[in-house]
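Worked Example 4.2. Read the sequence first, then its structure tokens.
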Amino acid sequence: MDREWVAEESIAVTAEPDEVYAAVTDLRRMKEWSPELFAVWVRGRRLREGTRFVGFNRIGWRVWFTNCQVSAAVPGEVFAFRVSSFGMPVALWGYRIEGVGGGSTRLTEYWEDLRRDNRGAGLVSLLGKVFTGVPAERRAEVNRAGMRTTLERVRATLETR
């Protein structure tokens, strides 16, 4: 199986871009939507570029944490963060938010595997498999399924408020 290095999924949401941005940047609520994340610890009250947080994740009996740092935070447009483990780059996660008119927004969740072309990439890939049970070659597939679940849950929350 060839390894995929990027993945993304999109969904249309009946909500304004600022409302969608507010939802996906409310990190403490992300546990309601993500099938892996179960807790978040955020440093500080204001979310902006440079803000650090720790995500606590679970697949089955496996539990792990990730260190994250916000790399883009533009209200109504984009929110992204870099994930590292033991100081080594793991991934870039983000959300693109595009108003499409009529009170609708296209919300895209994306992921890029950063476990390549750097010192420690092999080690952090091995650690990923040990902690998550998912080999690097399957991570894009697993993430796509999780993205679809997350996006559907965000949409349901925003459209039923």
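Now turn to a second chain, presented in exactly the same format:
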Amino acid sequence: MTAWDALGGYLRETQIVGSIQSTLYWDQNTCMPRAGAAWRGEQLTLLARQLHSRQSANEYADLIAAARQEWSEHASAPDHAERGRNLDLLEQDLGRQQALDPALVAALATAKSEGYNRWQQARQASDFQLFAPALQTMVDLRKEQARQFNEPRSCWETLAQPFEPDLSLARLNEVFAPLRQQLPELVARSTTAPRPRMANWDLPDSEQKLLCHELLSSWGRSDTISAVARSPHPFSITLGPSDYRITTRVVSGQPLSCFLATAHEWGHSLYEQGLPDQSHQWFAWPLGQATSMAVHESQSLFWENRVARSRAFSQAWWSRFREVGAPLGCAEDLWTAMNPLAPGLNRVEADELSYGLHILIRTDLEIALLEQGLAVEDLPSEWNRRYRESLGVTPDNDAEGCLQDVHWSEGLFGYFPSYLLGHLISAQLSEAMTAEIGSPEEHVAAGDVTPLLAWLREHVHPLGRAMNAEQLVQRISGRPLDSAPFLTYLEGKLAALSAL
């Protein structure tokens, strides 16, 4: 056995342990009884210890070193560059794992399980105080984690690296600056633009489930490799090379929420399914993993917004919605409902204009929690103040406010900017796609989205972690990431909806 093969076998076993952890997480979010939370916490803590032990062990370091030596002796191998990139990333991840105290790893796993359980209870009761102690614990543990990593970055930047490799606050502020200025202006215009308004309506759960099934079938879903369930917060997860899971939820009084969430999460899953060689060589290696969460979000947002929220899509689907009870008189009724362009309280249900403001608020708040001294107990009032000033709306309770997202219960600080970066990446990639094969809307109107997926499978999905998000955008679009394509897209959509 070569050193490379020995390292690959070790990585595969580690991936299996990680997939068991992911399976327990899936169960926790979908069908586990609430009383099982304590035992599940112990299970996840044990697995976290085992994973950290494998990912920081001297045996593992020796395998990487041997594979590096072997790599250096075979510079003419056809996959020499790919193997080198894999080893670079493995060495980087090894350094981070070896920097962590195993006791901290175990404490984080316990805190994540407890935090998720407390968040569910607090959200149901709309009482932030039930969640506040768990959030404080998580903030303290993540600060300690950043300290142990001891990287030349701020606390928030360090915690953001697993989601957005090489991201700095300076670069984030540079990219987001035009959005902070122009998004409020667009939102203000959308609230005064004359557009038709639909009366309140809803659809039974069974009909929403049927529509989602038909959507996924039309987008090529195979039930031999994928599964769909419900959870308090929609998400996508990969449990193995041929095991892709998504969840959605039905929201009373919001008949399109489930449909759009399903489109969004399936976009995530399509990306996972298209990563390099999922069933063979690279699944357990870094190159078989997502470039970043911003690229991940760009794929889900593409299918949700560029496809499902497009005018052509509404023209194709409005009669089907009417058949199951939606009060739609024409395609424009569905298109308007898909794109309400009205600022609200909920991020997941937000329109494309106001969505970015939801993300900016969350990003600023988590930076304030980690680096600027914002007290956990002051989070609800600060959240409400920022919503009032940025979006002109104020939550009536904690469930509508700072308890609506699951991310902080699991300590995912640094994740939220990926959503807005994903919007920017999606817009820039869509421009490149349009120049090469025609606009997404043209293909939707023709009733065939397979060319869209084929283009993404050729240009985006196979890159994996061969590069970071900004390098990917530069490679595909020919220019650095910026907000202009996204803002141009929003201007066009607002104008088209206002002209109805």
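Notes for the reader: The two ends are 67 Å apart (CA to CA). The mean pLDDT is 94.
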